[in-house]
Amino acid sequence: MVEKALEEIMTATPTNPAHACNNLALRKAARYLGATYDKALAPVGLRATQFSILQKLSAHGDVTISSLAEMIAMDRTTLATNLKPLAREGLVTVEPSAADRRARIVTITPDGLSRLKAALPLWKAVQAQFEEKFGADEAARLRASLEAVLDTGFKPWAE
Fold it and tell me: What pTM was computed for the model?
């Protein structure tokens, strides 16, 4: 039984999991692009995820961890882990909400805004390089397709 399953996996066909797995294709591309953006942002001491967090906070102001997690499609625990180094560096604050002591409010600090401003030209440069290689129209379609994935509501683990 195991040998048959392995043989099916190893056989190169369009429907075989090694060639048609949406998850694998997405994760490979995400690792590739993530590393590219991480390298570009390294001179200002940010990773791509941290840049995204700071960007969302600068655009939306004070938000709860739950709201921020929803905005960037990240679970709360992973977001809390990502916020710790930002808080240690004084780029964000995470404080209990005055309205609900169980909720935590995340705020970008002046140092966080300064770091974000320093990172923006680096982000713009890598963004432009990617769009030049991949194509600006193709990149826009890619972003739209990825947003559409989120809009499906496909969450079999939540059922």
Answer: 0.83
